[in-house]
Amino acid sequence: MEKNLSIDGGEEGRERWRRLSIGRSMEEKRVVSDGEEGCRSMEEKRPSIRFGQSELSSTTAVSLRHQLLGVADMGFSKEYEFLTEIGIEPKNSGSFVNGTWKGSGSVVSSVNPAKNQTIAEVVEASSQDYEEGMQACLPAPNRGEIVRQIGDALRAKLQYLGRLLSLEMGKILPEGIGEVQEVIDMCDFAVGLSRQLNGSVIPSEHANPSITLIYYDYVQMWNPLGIVGVITAFNFPCAVLGWNACIALVCGNCVVWKGAPTTPLITIAMTKLVGLMVQQTVSQRFGKCLLELSGNNALIVMDDADIKLALVHEKIYDSVVDQLLEAYKQVKIGDPLDKGTLLGPLHTKASRENFEKGIKAIKSQGGKILTGGSIIESEGNFVQPTIVEISPSADIVKEELFEAVEINNSVPQGLSSSIFTRSPEIIFKWIGPQGSDCGIVNVNIPTNGAEIGGAFGGEKGTGGGREAGSDSWKQYMRRSTW
């Protein structure tokens, strides 16, 4: 018997944005509701997009209201009541397979880093749950339309989801909302892309119609890889999933998402070691691997730069430092959900301990703390915004552009870098073959940030992969020629 599939959910399932699969069997088909009827179907139709996770994975902020595995609902405190608007419960199942939320693995707690309070718990999926979901994964037509509906569902709950992301991760509210918006934008991007995954026809050198009256051509086609695994870090638990999953889904793949264990509700900080392990494991079966690992981003300020807009040229070094120190005095530290907060807590207690260790290391190596450098005694994981001055980096960078670029390129990572200058000659050298060796090379803007239209990723120890933009979709497909 045919079964109708739709991403529209009912009361048992709202705005599901999780890992695993879309589709069920070769006999199934998806029904897409448009317009007002499509909106009303959120209350009328059973959900059919299935999301799940491996035993190492966690649940998501956009999961629907689900079963509590027989555990009584103790309810949320008033501070966390908004979570019910996006289907989060005090205890949540971690896998959704064949229309049912389940989970028989270990329990993971989500912690508010501003207060070190438990927000909610997630029961992880077992290996058996994972395998059941994987077996149900098959490509389906019109993936772009499904991704569009996912984007619409996220758009309807943007404020709630952004608030949860900030609550759980610790970044300020505008950044939390902005990260969810990036996933929505990525859905829109993928919808357009879904109608452009074209193959090609190539004339054959063997064709000789004057003799055989037959034309020969090669046809090149792109097919889904099948299963795409996505491992995301705690600092961008939502956006990085969107960059990968939206494109992978419209390419016809099943997506398995492993979020960071410290952000289970919205979901490894992947070090170089973890990245190498992943790469080696995948390469043993000649599989594709896209790695976007850590960065160590340099910002070079030349003596002709607008310093209000950093390695810093010696002629303006003192002025830049003075203005930075003045700016840091005005940084408001507090709960990331409070209006006006510019600096929230570090993500975990371990992060705060690492901050202290880093400060001690800087001092032991002759560094000078210009401002900050201490933890803030509170129930949360707050630290002072900090500027340090340490040799030899600052001294070498101040001499000339070549040495500044050399220092920029000498680190193991190669994610992002930027230079501040008004000189066209310096700019073209910076972005050219003798300039920065990073994947993202900026001019007169900070090193952070990215847009979905451009390929995001780095070189060297950062991994070499590219997410979003240009032709990144080819990484999620395999090519066949006949």
Automatic annotation (TrEMBL):
InterPro entries for the chain: Ald_DH/histidinol_DH (IPR016161), Ald_DH_C (IPR016163), Ald_DH_CS_GLU (IPR029510), Ald_DH_N (IPR016162), Aldehyde_DH_dom (IPR015590), ALDH7A1-like (IPR044638)
List of catalytic residues: 292
Keyword Oxidoreductase tagged: yes
EC class: oxidoreductase
Domain Aldehyde dehydrogenase positions: 107-274, 310-479
Keywords, alphabetical: NAD, Oxidoreductase
Family: Belongs to the aldehyde dehydrogenase family.
Protein name from the UniProt record: aldehyde dehydrogenase (NAD(+))
Origin species: Cynara cardunculus var. scolymus (Globe artichoke)
